[in-house]
Amino acid sequence: MIFILVYSIAPTFFIPITPLSITAGVFFGPLWGTIYTLIGSTIGGCLAFLASRYLFKDWIDQKTPTRVAIFQEKIRQEGWKFLAISRVTPIFPFNVQNYIFGLTDINIRTFFWVSLYSLIPGSFTYVYIGYAGKSLFRGEKDMFLNLGIAVILILLFILLPQLLKCLKKTK
User: Fold this and answer.
1) What is the distance of C-alpha 81 from the center of its chain?
2) For the chain, what is the total number of helices (H) and then of strands (E)?
3) In the chain, N or C: fewer CB atoms in 10 Å?
4) Comparing C-alpha atoms, which of 99, 110, 114, 128 is closest to residue 18?
5) pTM to 2 decimals?
């Protein structure tokens, strides 16, 4: 599908993916839009990850061995957690994350699966915003319900880092 292909290529060239996710909601609805977005973003993230890994990792390791060693040790200990948290809480842009994680020792299989699952909340939120916007634009009878759901999703997505912190404290 063309949408998935475009979405897969976009992160490699630092093209913002949020507008693509919103567009998926307009054209494909919440379910298929989220599925297509997850497939495209995960493939695109892996392409950028691999490009970074094979083009820059050795050079970076040689230029900054001390700093990289400290970071690599943290990634070895809890890499999948760090990846999941950075995916769920957009600390820095998705496209940049892909390249940075390519410079680490995290393996591609872990990167793929953790990215796929961790991108679900944000992908669904942005796709639903597009879906709700389409509903509002068309003046559909459930437009206010869809808009309300979109607002709730945005708030939950914004509050997700705090919710994760609370869950971590209770353990």
Assistant:
1) 14
2) 8, 0
3) C
4) 128
5) 0.82
Continuous H helices in 89-119: 94-102, 108-118
Q: Token pair of 154, please?
A: 């945005």
82 sits in which H/E element: helix 65-88
Q: How distant, in Å, are the alpha carbons of 40, 77, 153 from that of 47?
A: 10, 24, 29
Q: How far apart are CA 130 and CA 51, in angstroms?
A: 31
Q: Which of 107, 153, 109, 105 is nearest to 128 (CA)?
A: 153
CA torsion angle 55 57 62 64 (round to 10): 120
Q: How far apart are CA 89 and CA 101, in angstroms?
A: 15
Q: How many CB atoms lie within 10 A of CB 5?
A: 12
Written as tens digits, the pLDDT of the chain (171 aa) is 899 999 999 988 889 899 999 999 999 999 999 999 999 999 999 999 999 999 988 787 777 767 667 777 777 777 788 888 888 876 778 888 898 888 888 889 999 999 999 999 889 989 989 989 898 888 888 888 878 888 888 887 777 777 767 776 776
